[in-house]
Amino acid sequence: MRRRLVRVVTALVMAAGFVGVAAGPAAAQPYCDQPDPPPICEGEEDPGPPYGTPSVSLREVVRQPGGLRVSGTASDPNVATGIQVKIAVGSTIVATLTTSATTSAFSGIVPAAPGSQVCAMAVNQGAGENAYSCRSFTPQFNPFGVLENVSSGISGLTLKGWAVDPDTADPVKVEVYLDGRWIRSDTASQSRPDVATVYPGYGDDHGFQVTVPATPGSHQVCVRAVNVGLGATTEIGCRSAVQGSPPARPSLVLTPAPTGTSVAIRVIPSGTLATSFTIQLRGRALTYPPNTWLWTTVYSRAASGATEFTWTASGLTPATQYCWRVLASNAYGSSYASACTTTPMASTDPLPRPTGLMVTALTANSITLSWTDNAVNEQYYRIDRAGAETITVPGTPTTGWMTQTITGLQPGTRYCFDIGAWKDGQDYDPVRDFCGSTASV
Fold this sequence. Notes:
Elements: H1 2-17, E1 55-64, E2 67-75, E3 84-89, E4 92-98, E5 105-110, E6 117-122, E7 131-136, E8 144-153, E9 156-164, E10 172-178, E11 181-188, E12 190-191, H2 193-198, E13 205-212, E14 217-225, E15 234-243, E16 251-256, E17 263-268, E18 276-284, E19 293-302, E20 309-313, E21 321-330, E22 333-342, E23 355-362, E24 367-373, E25 380-384, E26 391-394, E27 400-406, E28 414-422, E29 431-437
Antiparallel strand pairs: 1-2, 2-5, 3-4, 3-6, 6-7, 8-9, 9-13, 10-11, 10-14, 12-13, 14-15, 16-17, 17-20, 18-19, 18-21, 21-22, 23-24, 24-27, 25-26, 25-28, 28-29
């Protein structure tokens, strides 16, 4: 009689809301922590459920958007049709499912509720009593995720990670806190197939990448996932990070060449934080918007600590103003210095005359002239004689000895030449009437 009473009490308690159902694998286990425990708790053989009692097995419980996905089997020997299976989470009956008449299977998405176990109760038909099967399972309601990485850069600190709320497959909001202070909110909606693989049913739109401004120095950054439905907003991670500084402003020294066609630009770094330097020239825009001034990059190089360097801008126009800017840059930004200068008017003084002119070889039809070149950076040397075309000899960047053979002459004839260095924009001052005679036949 005592055993029968225990079964009845247990069934009534289950029907009232699953209070006191044992947790564990999918099997019906009687309680032993009650005033009148069943015989199995006292070491006596349990005769089992009465004849005609249904069988039930809760095989799967999985958290899904909108509730829990449950599945299992249940059947009653008294009927050939499907039977009802009541699903409870904790002490709350949340749904009633019906088994298949052919496979005895049941499945469905049922509402989630607070609790530490999920139970399925097969409702008895005819003789016997209700049967039940439980699994230990605590539904999660708070959002969860991971703050995976924090990196620093020119725009500030960039945070990467993912966040999911168990109650919805939609992207959730995340809040970023810098040193304990809310700084901005964003939506975790970037594609993360890896998250979808681990949490099927929620999709892959749960990643976030957020950049927040930060002053140079050490910081702590935290991310909270904003709750949807039951539960509470949850912190999903904190990390320490260091925001670097852009390099200090360099110094810039401009030295125009006397020719007015070049400017030496000397760059003096301030400190060692720069990783690169860029020299820019300011000029008037030739296209829209008109009458604006733009900076154009003309030279770049990697930094070498605090080592200064000089770069020469050539091909400039004399008596013209030029403005230059040098940028010192690293991963956290740039600083710059600028300066302007006017190139000098080009000198019109003639180049130095050649010296040491002599005839170094001759034939009946040619004369070879030689001289000392005293000019620097001349374009060419001119050799002129009356009644003949001018002969040009390519110039040299430095001084030195030069030689040129003049052909097509007549035997036994005296010829006179004007010889001098030439450069556009400067006066021409040759040595005049240097003469020599060809050999007689």
